[in-house]
C-alpha cells in the first residue's frame, strides 16, 4: 500500500518527492492543539498534532478523528487556508501528515497544499476550564533523583479544572512572550525575591533531559505569557493556559531564583584543579609539548573522586587570556591560539565523543589588569552554548627557539633530476 503513497499524496492535495528508499512511516499523535491568532483561547484553529515533541499539521480528510478531538461535540472541519490567508508562512513551518486506512502517516520530503482547520462546538460541553493551581522548579540530578522546591530548575506548573471534570495535570511553560519582569514575578510567587537568571535551551535540558519529558509524556501547558509593567502578581498576567501552543520542548522555561542571600545557589561550586595542552598521536597518546587542545580538570571542593575532564570554549577568549593561560602552564606567552579547524588536529572529535568529554568552561573574560587566569571571570560547569568546534587550542612559548614541536622547514636549494633506466 505504501508503494502508492506518492500518488495518494498528490490526489489528496499534497506534493511528495520520494527519497531513495521512498520512506513513509506511521506516526502516533499524542495531543491536539488549535492555533488561530484571530481566536486565541477558542477550541478552533489550525489543527496541530503533537508527535514526539514536535508539532505537525494534518491534511484535511474524512478519516481525521475530528469527533474525538472535539470530545464528542459537533464540529466544523475546513481548510486553514480559508481562515488564515495571511499566515501561509506560519502554517508551512510545520511538517504535515495524513490519515489513511485508519492510521496516521508521515512521508519524508513531503508537504501539504491544504491543512485542516477544526472548529469545535462551544455550547454545552464538559471541556475542562483550567486554572493554575501551583508551580515548582524541578532539577533531576545525574542519579535520576528529582529535586523539588530548589531555587533553580525547570519550571513546572499544575493545573486544576474549575469544572471538576478532569484531574490535576502537570506540565511545562513555553518561553514565548516571557521576559525579565515575568521571571521576577514567578520567583516572587515561589517565595523568592527576584529572578537571578532564566532562559530555555540549551540549559533547560540540564535540569530535566528531553528524554525524561518524552518518557513521562510531560506536556507544554502554558504559552504566550505576557505581563504588563504594572502587574505585580504572575497570576494576573495574560497567558494561554492549556489552550494549545506552537512550541517545542526546547523552548521549556528554566528559572534561577534568588532571595538575596549568598546561599541561594544550589549548584556545586566547580573549580579548575589543573590544565593541560593535549596533542594526541595516531595511538591516542599525548605527544606532550607547548601546544595542543586546552583540557582542564574540574572538581567540587577538591573532591577528586568527582573530578571531570573537559574542554574550554572560545567564547570571550582573547590574546590577553591566551597569554595568562600559557603563563599558568609555565610558559612566557601565547605564540598562537584559536579553535576550529585546527583544534581537530590535536584531538579528533571522535575521541572526544568516545570518552564523553564535556565542554567545561565557557565565557572566559579577563580584564586588562588581570595577572592570573584563575582570577578571570568564566562559567565553569554552568552550561554553555558551544559545540566542540569551538574548543580552544593554544601554542605557548617560553621565548626559546625550540618551543615549536613541529620542524620549521625552509628552502635551502633546488635541483632538476632525470634518471635513466640505470638510475644514473
* Main sheet specs: 8 strands, mixed
Q: What oligomeric state do the depicted chains represent? A: single chain
Structural class: alpha+beta
**C-alpha-based Rg, rounded:** 29 Å
Query: What overall form do the CA principal axes indicate?
Result: globular
Quick one: how many beta strands?
A: 25
Q: What percent of residues are in strands?
A: 35-45%
Give the N-terminus to C-terminus distance in angstroms. 74 Å
- Ranges where pLDDT stays below 50 over 5 or more residues in a row are 1-20
Mean pLDDT, to the nearest integer, reads: 81
DSSP helix fraction: 10-25%
Q: What is the overall number of helices? A: 10
Describe the structure.
With about 425 residues, this protein is of the alpha+beta class. It contains ten helices and 25 strands. Strands 2, 3, 4, 5, 6, 7, 8 and 10 form an eight-stranded mixed sheet that branches. The longest helix is centred in the middle third of the chain and has 10 residues, at about 180-190. The radius of gyration is 29 Å and the shape is globular.
Amino acid at each position: 500500500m505504501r508503494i502508492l503513497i506518492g500518488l495518494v499524496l498528490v490526489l489528496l492535495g499534497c506534493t511528495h518527492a520520494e527519497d531513495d528508499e521512498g520512506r513513509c512511516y506511521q506516526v502516533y499523535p499524542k495531543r491536539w492543539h488549535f492555533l488561530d491568532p484571530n481566536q486565541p483561547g477558542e477550541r478552533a484553529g489550525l489543527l496541530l498534532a503533537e508527535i514526539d515533541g514536535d508539532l505537525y499539521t494534518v491534511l484535511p480528510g474524512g478519516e481525521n478523528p475530528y469527533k474525538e478531538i472535539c470530545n464528542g461535540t459537533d464540529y466544523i472541519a475546513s481548510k486553514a487556508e480559508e481562515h488564515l490567508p495571511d499566515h501561509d508562512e506560519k502554517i508551512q513551518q510545520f511538517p504535515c501528515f495524513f490519515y489513511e486506512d485508519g492510521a496516521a502517516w508521515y512521508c519524508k520530503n513531503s508537504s501539504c497544499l491544504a491543512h485542516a482547520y477544526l472548529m469545535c462546538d462551544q455550547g454545552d460541553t464538559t471541556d475542562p476550564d483550567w486554572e493554575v493551581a501551583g508551580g515548582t522548579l524541578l532539577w533531576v540530578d545525574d542519579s535520576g533523583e528529582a529535586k523539588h522546591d530548589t531555587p533553580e530548575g525547570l519550571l513546572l506548573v499544575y493545573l486544576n479544572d474549575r469544572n471538576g471534570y478532569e484531574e490535576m495535570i502537570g506540565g511545562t511553560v513555553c518561553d514565548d512572550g516571557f521576559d525579565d519582569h515575568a521571571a521576577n514575578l514567578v520567583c516572587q510567587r515561589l517565595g523568592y525575591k527576584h529572578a537571578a537568571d532564566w532562559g530555555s535551551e540549551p540549559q533547560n535540558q540540564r535540569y530535566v533531559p528531553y528524554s525524561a519529558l518524552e518518557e513521562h509524556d510531560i506536556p507544554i501547558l502554558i504559552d504566550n505569557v505576557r505581563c504588563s509593567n504594572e502587574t505585580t502578581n504572575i497570576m494576573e498576567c495574560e497567558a494561554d493556559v492549556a489552550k494549545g501552543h506552537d512550541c517545542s520542548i526546547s523552548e521549556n522555561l528554566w528559572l534561577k531564583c534568588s532571595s538575596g542571600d549568598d546561599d541561594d545557589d544550589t549548584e556545586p561550586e566547580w573549580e579548575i584543579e589543573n590544565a593541560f595542552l593535549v596533542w594526541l598521536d595516531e595511538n591516542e597518546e599525548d605527544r606532550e609539548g607547548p601546544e595542543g587542545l586546552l583540557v582542564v580538570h574540574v572538581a567540587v571542593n577538591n573532591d577528586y573522586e568527582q573530578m571531570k575532564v573537559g574542554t574550554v570554549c572560545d567564547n570571550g577568549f582573547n590574546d590577553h587570556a591566551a597569554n595568562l593561560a600559557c603563563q599558568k602552564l609555565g610558559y612566557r606567552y601565547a605564540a598562537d591560539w584559536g579553535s576550529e579547524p585546527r583544534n581537530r588536529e590535536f584531538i579528533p572529535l571522535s575521541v572526544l565523543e568516545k570518552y564523553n568529554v564535556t565542554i567545561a568552561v565557557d565565557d572566559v573574560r579577563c580584564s586588562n589588569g588581570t595577572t592570573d587566569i584563575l582570577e578571570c571571570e568564566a562559567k565553569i560547569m554552568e552550561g554553555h552554548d558551544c559545540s566542540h568546534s569551538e574548543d580552544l587550542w593554544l601554542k605557548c612559548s617560553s621565548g626559546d627557539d625550540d618551543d615549536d614541536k613541529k620542524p620549521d622547514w625552509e628552502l635551502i636549494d633546488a635541483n632538476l633530476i632525470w634518471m635513466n633506466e640505470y638510475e644514473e
